[in-house]
Amino acid sequence: MPTVPDMPLRLAGPECLATYATVPISFWVRRELAVELVDGGLGGIRLAEHPVEPPYLRDYDRYYTPMHWTETHDLNYWAFFLAGDLSAPVGAASVAYDTPSVPLLQGRRDVAELWDIRVHPDRRGQGIGSALFAAAVAWSRERGCVQLRIETQNTNVDACRFYAHKGCRLGAIHRLAYPLGASANRETMLVWCLDL
Amino acid sequence: MTLPKIHLAGPECLAAYATVPISFWVRRELAVELVDRGLGGIRLVEQPVEPPYLREYDRDETPLDWPGSFDLSNWAFFLADDPEAPAGAAAVAHNTPGVNMLEGRSDLAVLWDIRVHPDRRGQGVGAALFGEAVAWARERGCTQLKIETQTANIGACHFYARMGCRLGAINRFAYAGDPAAAEETMLLWYLDL
């Protein structure tokens, strides 16, 4: 992993979200973790990496961007990290904490959620995500959290590999967490947990 | 074996309902194993439990607590055989704000509770109750029935799988904040109606 010399990371408040939102989060889905029940589920749920044909662009910002977060959640206790130039960041991450409206936190004050992490496509694979992740972990530890949780989907194989590589373990698989919507291909929720 | 007669009732039946024990001995459980940290999924493997222990869902909350916790006006209660001294009972929740399990969906029903007296287990009482719960949910326009159980309740898991349910979710941290159940893993079963 190449290091990121002189990559400043700054902690910011929700006022940074307009800038934060300039970092694209979209990615091409070329592979996915296919979800297979073992013996109806009695043997568990298997994930098997498969190619996706044709590949498609997945953009979490399409309907719900960082500019919307303040409408749905009280961001008072959240942390926002920006990497690189503050006015034109190359990466960003946010951590949700002590917020009753965030289901993964279960109303607990000793759990944090890595709500969002994104790196500009031109700068992916350069360790910026790792630096942001480390900052989120350190901030959560400072708040006395014992666990950091991260929600992703079976269509985001790179994110799953990234979190596993960072020491996270899969905490939950939910095949029916998301409404079917327009696409016939329902995504499966995966929740990764890092004990702090 | 004669098929048990199932009676539909309202919340006034809960005193009789609560006389049916729900406790069971945990002698085996589904051990939870991550495959490649989770990248390969979550495996469930049946294993013996030594020493066996009695699991009692009624210890923290009994059916008598439900009226104080939820608006039961859209719930159904089923009693098997004698409504005064039932051999088994089941409860179905529908359209009830505050019941997170319902996900705010009006096309989803939750089999909130199902229990058969220990002397009457293995005689089809559970299947008859389950069948009535399914029929009731269908009549209300539900497209799915959802059921929460745990890896410690293998009998329930086999029963739901036999009734046609499929596993929808495995959650290893669902009970992390609850000291009595922190080590248990939540399983959500779904039946398409």
Which key terms come to mind for this protein?
heterodimer; A: 196 residues; alpha+beta; Aminopeptidase; two-stranded antiparallel ribbon; 16% helix; globular; B: 193 residues; seven-stranded mixed sheet; two-stranded antiparallel sheet
List the helices and strands and how they pair.
The complex is a heterodimer of chains A (196) and B (193).
Chain A: E1 9-12, H1 17-20, E2 27-37, E3 44-58, H2 69-72, E4 79-83, E5 91-97, E6 111-119, H3 128-142, E7 147-153, H4 157-165, E8 169-174, E9 189-195
Parallel strand pairs in A: 6-7
Antiparallel strand pairs in A: 1-4, 2-3, 4-5, 5-6, 7-9, 8-9
Chain B: E1 6-9, H1 14-17, E2 24-34, E3 41-55, H2 66-69, E4 76-80, E5 88-94, E6 108-116, H3 125-139, E7 144-150, H4 154-162, E8 166-171, E9 186-192
Parallel strand pairs in B: 6-7
Antiparallel strand pairs in B: 1-4, 2-3, 4-5, 5-6, 7-9, 8-9
